[in-house]
Amino acid sequence: MDDNSMTSQQPAICPICSNGLRNQKIVSRPNAPVLQNVTLSDRAKALAFPTGRLEFVRCDQCGFVWNEAFDPDLIHYDSGYNNDVSSSAYYRAHLEEMADNILAAVPQGEEIHYVEIGCGDGEFLRLVVERAKGRCVSAVGFDPSYNSSKPLPQRARIHPTIFSPETCALVPEETNIVCSRHTIEHIADVQMFARSLSSLITNRERKLFIETPDMDWILDHVAFQDFFYEHCALYTPRAIATLLAQYGMTAKTRPVYFGQYMWTEATLAEASPADGSPAAPSQLPAANPELADAYRQTSERSLHKWHEFIKDRSAAGPIALWGGASKGVTFALLIQSLAGQEPCLDCVIDLNEAKQSCFLPVTGLPIVSPETARQRQISTIIVMNPNYLDEIRDMVERMDWPARIVALNE
């Protein structure tokens, strides 16, 4: 799975804190699909989907992890990109909680002028407006993959473009909330993105909210399926605080989504240091090298255990993954790399109707609805995200489907 051998090449310099000492490569994989959340209705095209290399390096100081082999020219976000998981009641509850956190940041009685960077098809933007109950009087989104025919709320607009220094001028002057969920991990030029975000936070009344995966959770839970090409920049609380401090912002971060994600609220710092240097987030712990060492030592062993489990369970009947997003794409590819020509997975189950009847990139596994999977007599279901385990078990039980259900990272 991972080639963790270290070479005598020049040490990698952290793009956030500029540390070049004791940084270590933690993941090395060839032939990772450059996009995971794509709708591919042609299996031949899915099998031939473009790939790139993963060469993830971890900073010994701030814990930031980046793919030093990332090539942004391989990535093209368009209308075929679909990462919607709102069919899950668990995830919808999470979205509602985050929307309410945003709304609570603006004092009652004050208008909300909302901007979202990387808004997809606008589902979260719509949710913020809906739960604001009339307080949100304007909403503006940015996303190059926006292609929804669903009407937007009144006084809402989405620009189908990448957010960049050139598009900052499209942000209304009255904006008081800027939100970016699950976008920063897709941006290789971390300094450019932080600079663009910080240019919007021009006073202490404007607040910035960022949600992104927590790198420490990934390592601590040996979530080898959480490394993929789209996510070229993975943060820890210290890393994101360090980055934002360089642009005059103070950040507070807490775990959400059962620890898998970080929720950061940032505001303009009260004062800059006299020498003009960024305020260091010294209250946050430095990266723990033992966490990376433990991941390197156990990740391949964990993958092989799953491969052995799949081989053993094959005698009981067909096996399916539940979750046709990034985790499922990556897990399927890693298992296939061990299995070779031996067929071991039958299909992938996903509630997103736009993905059903499509195929995973590179492996070409079919994506099906739960009912179709039951008709295929799936006997074992491997859930890609343990957060959904309870609702999946309830659904399978209601379908009178006698499948064994297990989950990664339980």
Description:
With 410 residues, the protein is an alpha/beta fold. Among the domains are: 89-214 and 232-268, 3-Layer(aba) Sandwich (Rossmann fold), CATH 3.40.50.150; 307-407, NAD(P)-binding Rossmann-like Domain (Rossmann fold, 3-Layer(aba) Sandwich). It is built from 10 helices and 16 strands. Helix 2 packs across helix 3 (123-132) and helix 7 packs across helix 8 (326-339). The longest helix is centred in the C-terminal third of the chain and has 25 residues, at 289-313. It is globular and about 65 Å long. The two termini are 21 Å apart. Residues 2-8 and 273-278 have low confidence and may be disordered.
Describe the structure concisely:
The chain is an alpha/beta fold.
Could you outline the blueprint of secondary structure elements for this entry?
Elements lengths: L23 E10 L9 H5 L3 E8 L6 E3 L21 H16 L7 E6 L5 H10 L3 E7 L13 E4 L17 E5 L8 H9 L8 E7 L1 H6 L12 E2 L2 H9 L3 E8 L4 E8 L20 H25 L5 E4 L3 H14 L7 E3 L17 E2 L1 H6 L4 E4 L5 H10 L5 E4 L3
